User: Fold this.
Amino acid sequence: MQSCKTDCACCLECHFAYEEKHCWPYLPPSARYTLKREHQWLISNGFPPDGVREHAENEMRYFRHYCPPDLVAQIDRDHEEYEAGALHSRAAKGVR
Assistant:
């Protein structure tokens, strides 16, 4: 997935790219496969809010179990920004 910046969460696409780069190396292959399918589904369906929330809950179970606490804290902050309405897809922000 292409992101507009590295190591940021300026949009959902960059948030996904951050997770894939920093969190997924800690995950077993089956978890990476599951999360990749969820990311692809969310992207292709325009990031439905209920789907994004469900995905966040699913992935946090993996991240809390396998990833270092500092990464988990960063992803938690991004998820809080999403819930507060501050994190959107690039298309929703008018960015290509």
